[in-house]
Each structure stands twice: as C-alpha cells, then as structure tokens.
Amino acid sequence: MSEIELSEAQSRAIAQTVREALARRRISRQTLAEQARISISTLEKALAGRRPFTLATTIRLEEALGQPLRHDASRAAIPEPPRYAPDALGSYSREGVSWLEGRYLTLRPSFGTTGAIFAYRTEIAWDASEARLVFREAERVDAPFAQSGSVAVPNQSGMIYLVTNWHGQHRLAVLCRPNIQGEMYGILTTLHAGRGTQLTPAAAPLALLPEGTASENQYGRVAPPEPAYERYRSQLDRVRADGYATFFMGAD
C-alpha cells in the first residue's frame, strides 16, 4: 500500500515546527534524521517543500522530537510562503532560476598545497520556506570549513553570487551565467588561514561544473600525476583565458 501523504498546508506547518525544534534544541538535520530512522534526503526534501510529509515520516519525527507535529484543522490558516526572493538577492521566483538547481563539481586552487587543486561539491536548491536559492558544500576534506548560504541572481549585472554571511563574516563567489554546458566560472573571495590564528583576504579562480557532465570526479586535493589533475587544471585556466574574470596586479 502506498504511503499516506499529508496536504501541502499540513506539510508546510510541520516543516516550520521541525525547523523551530532544530534551532531550539541546536541539533543538526542529520542527527534528527538518524534519530527518526529516516534518510537525510527525505528530511531535506520535505523541509524544503520539494515533497510532502507522509504520515509514517511524521510519526517517526514526533517520536524522535518528543512533541506533536500534527495540529487540529481548527487552527488559524497558515499564511502562504513568499513567492519571490528578497530584493537583496534579486527578487527572483523559483521558475526564473530553476535552471541553477543541481550539484556541481567545484574547483579552485589549493590554499595549502602549491600547484594542487581543491575539488569539492556545491549543491544549489530552492528553500521554499524562505523563497530563495540556497547552496551548501560537501565532499570537502576540511569538512568543518564547508560553507552554506544564499544565492543572489540580480538582473542588472547578469552575474550569480554565492553569499555566505556568518555573524557578519562574509565569503563571496562571483560567477558568470552558465554556458551551454551548464558550466560557471568566476572568482572566489574568502579568508585564508595564515600563520597562527591570522586570517588573510584571498581571491582565486573558481569553476562550477555540473556533476552530470563530469565523469569519474575526484574530490579533495588533486595534484600531478593524479588522473583528474590535467582536466581540472584546464577548467581553472579557462577563468583567465576565456575572460570570465580579470585579476589586476597593479599598474604596468
């Protein structure tokens, strides 16, 4: 028998309650998924509004959280979530930016190993509760430093911005629109850990390649003579060679 799916309004209400419980208890979505004996993918999709909650999933979450998630229909109607991203991100709708959603092999020079390339995954998805694209990084060898944040897509510049704002500390990736292969190239501006606790502003070329077009991806620090190195190097070289970004080194 197929699983019983809750209504869209019920699913939105449950998602909001679960997010509030996660913030109040300061536990991760991964931890909740494990305690509820459901997959993290199921939980993420339900919280993002990409699939409805099922009755079975809701009961397991109630058991894990120790609180009810289903409420009487007599409660006040739940307001519709916003349809457009905030003006600060470009006021876009999901329909207008759905082509950006997906997983990307992400390449930049390694900050710790000269000549090596740092490879990881960037996932871009729609957050229905906040009406915006969000991104998160995975497959990083330095997992504690993986970034997440919002995606800005303004009409004026035609650029795409991956913005991290953690208590006022910013990291920014500026990318050109995808080419016909769906590849995006640009610049990453961040902070590099120098000597001791010193942090230094740093900029580097950046490439995001759809995972579906890149076979046999290798993550981590990639250096010669590893098989993926030359392919990764050629992709990063395109940032300068094809004019996707300019690095100014001072007056001639």
Automatic annotation (TrEMBL):
InterPro entries: Cro/C1-type_HTH (IPR001387), Lambda_DNA-bd_dom_sf (IPR010982). SMART domains: HTH_XRE (SM00530). Residues 17-72 form the HTH cro/C1-type domain. This is Helix-turn-helix transcriptional regulator. It comes from Methylobacterium longum.
